[in-house]
Every structure is written in C-alpha cells, then in structure tokens.
Write a structure and sequence with these properties.
The protein has helices spanning about 10-25, 35-45, 65-75, 110-125, 170-175, 220-235; strands spanning about 5, 30-35, 50-55, 80-85, 100-105, 130-135, 135-140, 145-150, 155-160, 165, 180-185, 190, 195-200, 205, 210-215. The two termini are about 25 Å apart. The chain has about 240 residues and is an alpha/beta fold. Strands 2-1-3-4-5 form a 5-stranded parallel sheet, with helices on both faces. A 5-stranded antiparallel sheet has the order 10-9-8-12-11. It has a 3-stranded antiparallel sheet with strand order 13-14-15, covered by helices on one side. The longest helix is centred in the middle third of the chain and has 18 residues, at about 110-125.
Length: about 240
C-alpha cells in the first residue's frame, strides 16, 4: 500500500486534498499535518516514511521547502508534490527533487492526474529486481538501483550504498527493466534516469558525482529519454 502525507496549514485545502485523494485512491488513506514541524515530528518519532508527500510551500514557521529538505536527508526515494499559489517558488525547490507542482486553487482533474502518475511511478520503482550470488537469493527495489555495469561474464549492480556482483547477461537484464526508468548509455552500462544530474556528448554525471560513459551509439537515445523523463516528472 502506498502511504500519503498532506502537509498544509489551510483547513479547507486540507479537506479538499484529503477528499480527492480518498476518492481517487480509497485503499491509500492520507495522513494530514498542519505544519512542517508537526510532519517532521511524526516522521522522526515513528520512523514512518511516506511514499508520497503533498507539501504546501508557504506555511507559518517552517516552510514546505525546509520540511522537504529535511525529509530528503533521510529518504531519497519519496515523491514530493508541492501545492502552492506562489509560482515564483518553482525554481527554488529543485534541490529537494520535486515530482510535480499543483497550483492553488486546486483543480480536481489536475490533482487526479498527479495521483495517477505518482501511483504508476511508485508501482514501477517499488518493483523488485531478483538475483542470486552462489546459493543466496537477493531482491532490490528498482528505485534503489543506480546503474548496472557489465564486467566480463558478470554484472555489477550499484545502489547508493552497496555493490553486488553476480553472473548474468546485461542484455537479459535490460529486457526485464522498465524502459521509462532505465536506459542504456553504453554496451556495458544501464542507468536509472532518476539519478542523472547532467549529460555531455561523452558521458553522464550521476547525482552522486559518479561518471558513466556514453557511447556514440546511445548518445541521442540517452538525451531523448532523459528529456522525456524530465518532462513527464514536470507534468508536461
């Protein structure tokens, strides 16, 4: 089940968001918080991380941007949707890696579309990739996989914190991955589009600072797929 949090100081907007979410995703009830401080206190005390946050940007005390930045320190995978009537803030929040923006007054159709896209994205990212090393079976959520690298007759799976090496063919792995989330960059590399920071003609730089080469064969494909992914994330 996908867990959802609403952080909004306006009671009418709280009620509107909660009703639309409940009507759209009846199996995914939302928890409501009236301030960034209240939300972070709950997250820190219960160690409960939500999959999806609807965050008002402008609130008394801690702003939604500050609350989202605190969430990002412990949870790089959650989707954050900013709900705001301050369009000028849009370019100030990208370090928190927002998923979408919903502009007030909130239109039901716009919010339903964001929910649909977020649900599909989370379903894809939370799928498990299975592999085995000797007699041990492992499973890793796709959202945690930064890139795959082919090494001789083995594959190296890289997450932000760990690396696993196992026997397999990277071409067979590619067939099992969501093409909207992963892309070839080189005959030896498959990268999660969510982790790309920048692209040049010869390589990409990941958010971690890691450099991955791009071959001439895949150069245009990587640029097109990354642009499509960014547009989709921005709701364009």
């Amino acid at each position: 089940m996908i867990s959802i949090a609403i952080c909004e100081d306006s009671i009418p907007v709280q009620s509107q968001l909660e009703k639309i979410i409940t009507d759209t995703l009846p199996d995914c009830p939302a928890e409501v918080f009236s301030s960034g401080e209240e939300l972070l206190a709950h997250v820190n005390s219960s160690q409960e991380h939500f999959n999806l946050y609807f965050m008002d940007i402008s609130m008394p005390g801690m702003s939604g941007i500050e609350a989202a930045a605190a969430i990002r320190q412990s949870d790089p995978y959650a989707l954050i949707v900013y709900v705001t009537d301050h369009k000028e803030y849009v370019y100030q929040v990208f370090e928190t890696l927002p998923f979408r923006f919903v502009i007030k007054p909130v239109e039901e159709s716009a919010l339903r579309q964001v929910l649909s896209d977020a649900f599909r994205h989370l379903e894809s990212r939370l799928q498990l990739f299975h592999f085995h090393i000797e007699r041990c079976q492992y499973q890793i959520p796709l959202q945690e996989i930064v890139f795959f690298e082919a090494f001789r007759r083995q594959v190296i799976l890289n997450t932000l914190e760990n690396t696993w090496q196992f026997y397999g063919k990277i071409s067979e792995i590619a067939e099992a991955l969501d093409p909207l989330l992963f892309t070839w960059t080189h005959m030896s590399y498959i990268v999660n589009l969510d982790y790309i920071r920048s692209i040049t003609d010869t390589g990409i730089t990941l958010r971690s600072g890691k450099y991955i080469p791009i071959s001439k064969r895949w150069r245009e494909t990587v640029r097109i797929k990354h642009l499509q992914y960014l547009k989709w994330r921005a709701g364009q």
